[in-house]
Each structure stands twice: as structure tokens, then as C-alpha cells.
């Protein structure tokens, strides 16, 4: 029996589906939810999908046992694994699936350290499960499903520059993401991820998202999102790096101010050093701006011709940091293969863009 998924016919129960998806780094940020079970955000957000950072997830049916086998490379946090199990169970219930799965996943960047690995991870898992079970879901449906695992996974279903609309209704029907600009809109744009620590963060994004709600400055930060995104979209359309960067940096500073008000500090001494270096470079007329999320890593937005100078300056002062340079990613990639008595795909696989 055949099914149709984004222009390709698939069949056979012994299939393995591999998905490569990318984390999205917010310029106007998502932090905190108004509905815990549906993962509906308190504010809209706008993010860039990073080409050179990615999650690779392979899913197949577990024919032998009524259990899900989950292996995440370099990650053994039991609470995180249980979140994945709960998501897969919710998937079974929503679509009346009577199958169990083998899941293997890995990132080429640090996991659970402020680089949106949960977003790319749950996006890849969502696409792979839906494809393996031949559900023929639209991007919007995939996005809504992925949100149940991780809020930022909504954006990682898409490539390019992505706007996640917070929505207003309680059911979340108007909460969705969309690509505003494709990956090739601004070819010179780069984001440098400065990895100052490879260790998982001490406070998870989900827990911090609950705590930040008590910040006295939080509502004001929420209220600023829509206007900032409107200004940001125009600035990106016009390729105004200084305006884009200043909006991004201000939103980041205000978010971390809210976190500090509830006793959360993600930045380390090295994080602060990197931000000071970026401020100093701007005094030298170098167009570069910083942002950071729920972790110590600093991301620097700049243009391609400035990358080497920025990295060299950072490495001069903080030689131990790792610098990952990325342009903007396109959509996730799906590859499907036939397997025989092994978890590894055989030859004959192909790639399709969502």
C-alpha cells in the first residue's frame, strides 16, 4: 500500500526514516508559556534557522517489544528521556498508532546548553514519526504537533527566518509558525555561536520558563514583542544589520534582566567577556551584536566579511572557547530507507525537502 508525502511515494513496514533539522536562534525571544500542556507561548518570537548546527534523528518500528527504545548520543538525563517517551505516547494517542519505535538521535553541537537543541530534536522526531506512520501531515500540523514536545520545535519545522505567532485563543488554533524570509534572502548574514561551556545547564529552559513568570518586568517584556517583530521584519527586508542587531540585543538584555529578578543567571564570566568584546568592536565601527538564551553560550550576528576579525578578537582574549559559524538553513531534510534485520539503513535511500 502506498502513501503520499511531500511528493514522494513510501511503503513497507521495515522502513527507517532519518530527519535532519536545525535549531533556531531567536532575535525576538520566546520564554514562558501561557498553557503548560499545549506549550502556548506568552509572546510571539522571530528566529533564524542555523545551517551548520543540526540534529540527526533516525526512527524505525520496534517489532520485538511493546516499548520505545530511545538513544540520545551524549545525553543521559532521565527527565529529558522521559519527556521524549511522553511525547511519543501522546503521538500514539492522538493518531491512534498501535506501534512502538526505535529512536536514535544526535546533535553536532552541545545538548541542553542554551542552543535550542530541544527545538531541533523534537522537530526531527515529529517529522520522522509522522513520515514513518504515513500520516501525510501539513507543515502547520507538524508544527502544532512538535510544539507538544518543545515550544521552539514549532520553528524548527521550517527553514529560513521564522515568525512564531503566539495566538490568542485557548485551544492554540491561531498559534503557528511561518517562514517570513527564505534561507537565501540575506546571503551575507552570519551567526557565530560562541560555545563557552559544553556542560548541560543547571536550570532547564522549562523550569526557568515557569520561574520567569514571577518577574516584575516580565509583562513589559512580553508587551514589547509584537512591535519589535514588526520593526525587525522591515529591517531584515531592507538588510539593515545595525537595526536588526540592536533590536535583537535589547530583547536579549531585557529577558536576562527578568531572569535575574527571579534568581536565575545563565551567563558565566566568559559569557560576559564575549559580550564586552562585541561592545568594544562596535566602538571600532564593526557591525556585530550579541544575543543569548537559556544557557551560557553567546551568539553574535554579523556579516560574512567580519567573521574572521570577530573570531580572532574573541580567541585572543578567551582562547578556550569554541566558535561555530553558520549561515541560514533551509527546510529540514528527510531520508527514508529500507532496513533488514538491523537498525542501520541499507543503500537506496533518497532525500526530499519538506
From TrEMBL:
Its EC number is 4.1.1.33. Residues 192-327 form the Mvd1 C-terminal domain. InterPro entries: GHMP_kinase_C_sf (IPR036554), Mev_decarb (IPR005935), Mev_diP_decarb (IPR029765), MVD-like_N (IPR053859), Mvd1_C (IPR041431), Ribosomal_Su5_D2-typ_SF (IPR020568), Ribsml_uS5_D2-typ_fold_subgr (IPR014721). Keywords: ATP-binding, Lipid biosynthesis, Lipid metabolism, Lyase, Nucleotide-binding. The keyword ATP-binding applies. It is an enzyme of class 4 (lyase). Belongs to the diphosphomevalonate decarboxylase family. This is diphosphomevalonate decarboxylase. It comes from Legionella drozanskii LLAP-1.
